[in-house]
Design goal:
heterodimer, A: mainly alpha, 9 helices, B: mainly alpha, 6 helices
């Protein structure tokens, strides 16, 4: 297990350095997030619907789309110059490749969310000061779930036709359970209700993360083996 | 008899018996007191729902075994089952609103069970779309197996959300921990219908399986 994580970190670091040096993908994803938030602002009647009622959905729909956009890119990077083949012949376990992509994607999506959250607070005037810690917790829980499944699927769709279209079609049904949970918990937080009320949803999110990270780790070799 | 013909025969028998189910449901089964005639759709809706979900479970199991055994028959079965499952899910999603309009007063509501079936339908469609987007058979089989297993694991998660969401949907009257709370005569009709749907599922899957086999074999040499 230690080896897997160490190898995973080496590859993830490579991905992140590439990402950091070019910054194109990150900037596009961050701008995309800002744009979705802007679109949401004009997609409602502010005099009819109180912002607080819509806020959890706005936050989560934005994060879902941002994650999807980011995940599309995860293996696209490896397609150029057949880099994936190079990775596969390297003396690494397949599991560590999955974990590498998982870590890199988590950092990437997490950074985009770190840009999106303050913008969300700014644009919609939502007070998150008192609930920041639990809110970050639920964002982390849901993001791990999104990225765990998304990383696995993005490894598959790159070899299909219409990859960019295929990923959302395959992935969105899988994002619905964590999305419902995240929205419920966020709504409870924003309206000042106690977390004990949404305990079931928190358990669902945690179980989803554990379940799909394990499953994807086990299944990933089947997506790359020749 | 070829596999295709066997499948056709089963399907024809199933369809004839489906007619018989409706004769029995309409003429020989009492009308439910509060829902009236609308309740009759239950004899199609529920068996189709059971098979739409069972089909997903079977795909998941076949996929898991496929990754170990690499037996193309398992992959073929999974594809056939996905096609039939999609149709059954579509039946559930069509009959549900027809019942919902007179009883709930709305065609659609975001009730947990409806959402579950809709998501199941989307997983099926995604599964078939993925299969359609990969031309190489080995790759297609592996990828769809991965997606099939993920689909199987997703279903309990969606089910769990049924427990957490407040639901409008009638609670199960047959498949529940205590004894079925359905009058015996209705239960008999339902069981009859369930057997017919089982037969239809097997018939459709056999036909599709045979067609897939034929497609893999390529066009006939003399054709």
């Amino acid at each position: 297990m230690g080896d897997i994580l160490r190898d995973a970190w080496t590859i993830a670091r490579k991905d992140l350095i590439l990402e950091f040096r070019s910054r194109t993908a990150f900037l596009s994803a961050a701008v995309f997030t800002a744009l979705v938030l802007t679109v949401f602002n004009f997609g409602r009647d502010p005099t009819a619907v109180p912002t607080l009622d819509l806020a959890p959905s706005i936050l989560w729909v934005t994060f879902t789309f941002a994650a999807m956009l980011a995940l599309n890119r995860a293996f696209q990077l490896e397609l150029e110059n057949q880099a994936l083949d190079g990775l596969l012949v390297a003396p690494l376990s397949r599991h560590s490749i999955y974990w590498a992509k998982l870590i890199a994607n988590l950092v990437f999506v997490g950074t985009v969310e770190a840009v999106g959250l303050p913008l969300f607070v700014l644009f919609f005037n939502v007070d998150i000061g008192g609930v920041l810690a639990p809110l970050l917790g639920v964002i982390a829980l849901a993001t791990i779930g999104f990225v765990a499944v998304g990383t696995l699927f993005s490894a598959m769709v790159i070899k299909t036709r219409f990859a960019e279209l295929m990923l959302p079609v395959l992935l969105l049904p899988f994002l619905i359970p964590p999305l419902i949970g995240a929205v419920q918990v966020t709504a409870a937080l924003f309206s000042g209700r106690p977390l004990s009320e949404v305990q079931g949803w928190l358990r669902l999110l945690a179980a989803y993360d554990v379940g799909f990270v394990t499953l994807a780790t086990l299944l990933f070799p089947a997506t790359v083996n020749e | 008899m070829t596999l295709l013909n066997r499948g056709r025969l089963l399907t024809i028998v199933g369809l004839v018996l489906l007619g018989a189910v409706y004769v029995r449901a309409l003429a020989f089964t009492p009308t439910e007191a509060s829902q009236g005639l609308a309740q009759k759709i239950f004899y199609i809706h529920v068996p189709a729902a059971v098979w739409a979900e069972t089909s997903m479970i079977l795909i998941g199991i076949a996929s898991a075994f496929f990754l170990f055994l690499k037996d193309p028959r398992l992959d073929r079965f999974a594809e056939a089952s996905a096609q039939v499952g999609t149709v059954f899910a579509a039946v559930v999603l069509t009959t549900g609103p027809i019942w919902g309009k007179p009883i709930w007063g709305t065609w659609w509501t975001w009730d947990a069970r409806l959402t579950l079936t809709l998501l199941l339908f989307f997983i099926y469609v995604g599964y078939l779309v993925l299969r359609g987007a990969i031309t190489e058979p080995g790759l297609r089989a592996r990828y769809s197996a991965v997606l099939g297993i993920c689909g199987l694991v997703l279903v309990p998660f969606i089910h769990f959300s049924v427990l957490l969401f407040r639901t409008l949907h009638p609670q199960p009257v047959i498949l529940k921990p205590s004894a079925p709370s359905l009058p015996a005569v209705m239960l008999t009709t339902w069981l009859f219908s369930f057997c017919v749907f089982t037969l239809l599922y097997i018939g459709f899957v056999t036909q599709t399986y045979a067609l897939l086999l034929r497609r893999e074999a390529g066009p006939p040499a003399h054709g």
